[in-house]
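Re: your question from the hallway

Yes, I did run it. Sequences:
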Amino acid sequence: MATPKRHDVTCPTCSHTQREYVEATSTFCHACGHRYSTRKAPPRRKTKSARTAATLNRRRIYCMFCDHPMQIPESSDSWQCPACSEYLDLKDHTITGSVGRSLQTYGDLTVESQGFFSGNRAEAQNIRIAGGSASGQLTARESFEITRLSKVNADIKCDRFLVVSGAGMESRKSLRCHHAVIEGSVRFLEVTITGTLEIKAGGQLRTEKLTVPCIQVSPGGKLYATEAVSRPVSKSKGTNQQNTSVAGVSP
Amino acid sequence: MPWVENFQHLFKESGSEPQTLISEALDLKGDLFFNGDGNVAGTIKGSMQSDFHVTIDEAARINGPCHAGNLHVSGRIDGDVRSREHIRLSPAAYVRGDLNAATLEITPAADFQGALKIGISDSA
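Structure:
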């Protein structure tokens, strides 16, 4: 039978060292009689400066269900709202196949050329349509970008809408954003922009109804709107940003 | 805004007075056609046409269609506006009618309502 292992322990009162079994949790000092723990001390807590450094790598979000503000670590893949206990997805998603469920994330959403999103609703920080098709209601808290010819028949809501050169889509739904830059070809039933609409050379926008306070069509750009309204922005009604605000936007 | 600079060459001050000036005191009923740059500050009840650069001042009131090479609108137009090249609606502009041009610039405080046909082949 093996002899139990021993190790040296030191009395915290008189510094007397004696040998004790490793399994022992406490002992009496043979010199002064003081009783003390022989277990190693637990790891020290992080210093205040270390904890502050960890806090810096956080981002502020609002719960998409109850608007509760919270600070979350940037490296987290998911979180739980402390107010409503709802699960919050923080991951980036790339759709390369068929997805039929709704998707809500604080990460980015990309629909690749073979991707097909048919859920009722998708909400993400940034949405990029790189080919493929999407329908339903697509909400990007920041930018919505179309980088290739795509089949998108969806209500789109975002802060910044961008269609790159050579890309395009046709939708029988609406677009609502703060700022739009069109370098490709797009068609919507209705477009509401609270900031500026820019149509660059080679860009084309066709819509039945257009509401926008500021338009710039560069040479080579095309704009066709059956009914367009451009009115001064009323300060009493709030800023442009507020008009397109979506739930969960970080300030 | 940097994109505004793209069109500044169209409205660059030449230093010379425009060839045609419809003053604020003038109240014209009928169709107006002039061959050269123009500056309209008065009231026109009828159409206005020029193949050159026309500026519609803040005091101007035009009740009828306008057609020009380049058009810079600061006043009020009740009628369709057509330009061979560029239309710019300044902050004080008030337009009720369709816009048809090769390029367009509507500044944030302009007031416009109508159809838009910009950069489409038959705009020239």
